[in-house]
Amino acid sequence: MEVVKGIPVAPGVVIGRAFIFEDVRIRVPMHSIPAGDVPRELARLEQVLAEVRADLERDRDHAAEKLGEEPAKIFAFHLGLLGDPSLIGPIREMIEHQRVSVAYAVSEAFRQLADRFRSLEGQVFKEKAGDVLDLDKRILARLFGADGDRLARVTSPVVVVAHELTPAEAASLDTSKVLALAVDLGGRTGHTAIVAGALGIPVVVGCQRLTESCNEGDRIIVDGLGGTVVVNPDPLTVEAFEQGMARMASERARIRETAELEAVTRDGTRIDLMGNIEFAREIPDLLENGGDGVGLFRTEFLYLTARREPTEHEQFEEYRRAVELLGGRPLTIRTMDLGADKYTQQQAEEPERNPMLGLRSIRYCLQNLPMFRTQLRAILRASAFGPVRVMFPLVSTSDELKQARMIVDDLQEELRDEGIAFDEDIDLGIMIEVPSAALMASTFAREVRFFSIGTNDLIQYTLAVDRGNASVANLYSGSHPAVIHLIKAVIRTARRFEVDTSLCGEMAGEPIYTMLLVGLGLRTLSMAPGQIPAVKRVIRSMDVASCERLARKVGSFDSERQIVRTLREELEKVVPGSEDAWVLGPRR
User: 180: which strand partners?
Assistant: First the structure.
């Protein structure tokens, strides 16, 4: 039995069999396979070799047509390797006799061949080593691209174990086949973690070397509440976790009863609880959890889960469906937040050195105007069917906002000329996600009708902590005094200019922050649908006067630890049984 400590993302406890989702971006760790899987792995090898050979031959023929026969000869070395028995034979033997995955066998055989070339004198051999590794990457990319297909063929639900997942890979997981997710890398508010957390299954990230200690088919426990993963648990451990699962199910059922009640404080103040979603299909679950509407529609996942850029009609249909499912409740659509760890780096010929500070979000949109205009037209058209608001992400300068507004104005004129209906008075707003936007809130307040404070990025950029980096996860905290001061400043400015303000970062869904956020003046919070009942429970147990006193008290602290301790103490006073971490949120 091995116990691995990670970072909890989504609560719940699951016991199941491991499915290893391999990763082309790293050296593949060795994974043993059951004897019965050997024929399947050999078949995968033959299939991928045939596919790669076809790819190379197609590339060779294309090069010959465009560049001539001589340049096309560069493909001869790769094609020769694919047919070399001295390379392919040992790969088959490793799978048959050592019972390892095809990915590991390919990776190891090609690494050894590259090392042999490197050991020889002469630049030409060093170049050949590079060619070997290029072919290795091509084969592994084919294999790992097929992991989703392999997962689709499993006959019983599994626990997915991965070294790293992209947001698109996480979004594509089929929860009818995936019981839980455990990932080596990542932080609690990274984009992959957010998407995975929305799947409604237990998720633990930051598991370090879990993929090296876990093999396909191993029995595994994933505790998304405590952030613990247990590989090959003993009977006593299984029994203890099963008892915990029963207690958690009972607690969840009790909290879920709150969903149908109004989010009103004990002294009569109504708090709007909105949902953060990636797809329109999540709206029924949002409404079942007692949500008042959609405060954040992350539209970039329409791009991340498609093989091509979605058309205007496809986007329009998705937005219209969301409007109709909400039945008159508000829908806030964030324009595509592509870049950083989402989409653009995979498309770029030369990836950015520091994409979190690079061409992302509104910056990317303004440099890709045809794509941006297509999306905005789709949103405007959908606004004819119900209440829609447009929100621009990661705005850091007034010029960015002015450019975006000009594009909207231009498209509105275009739609009028075409006789296409849209909301002539549609609300435009921005996300406050960077310190410059928070400090310039008074400037932006003159230009927009609403703010949404995106604490996930605001924390990242204020504290200079990569939100997806498990190595610095302990430094990433919404309880930092600087973060709280910025949130407070934005709320004060918005109130002065009568700009509607909400908070849509992960802080909104953590009950430990609910009293503080209401005390700072927020009356709208947006979170993952499954978090709404627990937050609503806190709201119905507190009064605004106590929240305001708490906010003043916390505002005088300069210690994160002191702030967390105080928030916990106050919450435990108003919520019975708040010692349950599922109710309180993460402990620090």
Answer: 159
